Amino acid sequence: MLTFALPKGSLFKDSIQLLQKAGLDFSAFLDESNRQLQITDPTGTAKALLVRAQDVPVYVEYGQAQMGIVGEDVLREKTPKVAKLVDLGFGGCRMSIAVAQASGYQSPLDLPPHSRIASKYVNCARTYFDSIDLPVEIIPLYGSVELGPITGMAEAIVDLVSTGKTLKDNGLIEIEVLYHSTARLIAHPLSYRLHSDRFGQLIQQI
Ligand SMILES: Nc1ncnc2c1ncn2[C@@H]1O[C@H](COP(=O)(O)OP(=O)(O)OP(=O)(O)O)[C@@H](O)[C@H]1O
Ligand SMILES: O=P(O)(O)OC[C@H]1O[C@H](OP(=O)(O)OP(=O)(O)O)[C@H](O)[C@@H]1O
């Protein structure tokens, strides 16, 4: 039986709908009274695990799930050993650097050396600032990263932007886009090679 790791949160509903179009029904996860974290499709041919977005590649890398759906941002941050199969087109957002509008910074190069940068994406942030040779202190956070510059804890943030509303409502502006991200279908590399027919059929349907 094929097992999928599906992300809770922003990508959840689109992931369920996509698999429904491919003939796999995991809509039981949409029922909020159901607290099961693992369900089997009514056809009995596939199973899904409901996990945090950041944990999807972990289940796929370790082989507990043969396939998963996860944002490109998580793949760049975690660099897991998984096969990247298809750009699914939903979950569009960008990884950006933002600062308080009042700070006057218009480019990352305006940031003073040893600035503090708050982020959930510490590796993406580190890679970018290394690439421009600017020494910075990265402050790891787990959410509400926009509070970094507002409270004065950090000069800038590296975070996802989609509509831009969170930045706007908190008086922040984007000064650089690091990359664009959408949801990806990923697979356990060995399973993908061993079951290429089944995977190929499913990818066609998706
Ligand atoms: N505002 C957004 N608009 C569109 N896609 C987004 C947005 N924020 C995040 N995403 C995409 O959805 C994925 C999951 O994000 P989500 O916010 O649900 O989880 P998370 O906050 O990163 O994880 P967790 O809540 O488990 O810590 C991200 O990795 C990204 O690819
Ligand atoms: O540009 P927008 O459409 O406003 O979306 C951007 C917001 O979405 C994500 O936050 P999320 O909802 O995942 O919250 P968290 O990072 O604080 O957990 C991201 O970290 C931004 O805060």
TrEMBL record:
Keyword field: Amino-acid biosynthesis, ATP-binding, Cytoplasm, Glycosyltransferase, Histidine biosynthesis, Nucleotide-binding, Transferase
EC number: 2.4.2.17
Domain ATP phosphoribosyltransferase catalytic: 52-206
Catalytic activity, as annotated: 1-(5-phospho-beta-D-ribosyl)-ATP + diphosphate = 5-phospho-alpha-D-ribose 1-diphosphate + ATP
Main location as per UniProt: cytoplasm
Pathway: Amino-acid biosynthesis; L-histidine biosynthesis; L-histidine from 5-phospho-alpha-D-ribose 1-diphosphate: step 1/9
GO biological process: L-histidine biosynthetic process
Gene Ontology terms: cellular component: cytoplasm
Domain of life: Bacteria
Protein location: Cytoplasm
Keyword Nucleotide-binding appears in the UniProt entry: yes
Gene3D superfamilies for this protein: Periplasmic binding protein-like II
PANTHER family: ATP PHOSPHORIBOSYLTRANSFERASE, ATP PHOSPHORIBOSYLTRANSFERASE ATP-PRTASE
Domains: entry comment: Lacks the C-terminal regulatory region which is replaced by HisZ.
Quaternary assembly: Heteromultimer composed of HisG and HisZ subunits.
Stated family: Belongs to the ATP phosphoribosyltransferase family. Short subfamily.
Function noted in UniProt: Catalyzes the condensation of ATP and 5-phosphoribose 1-diphosphate to form N'-(5'-phosphoribosyl)-ATP (PR-ATP). Has a crucial role in the pathway because the rate of histidine biosynthesis seems to be controlled primarily by regulation of HisG enzymatic activity.
Name recorded for this polypeptide: ATP phosphoribosyltransferase
Organism: Pseudanabaena cinerea FACHB-1277
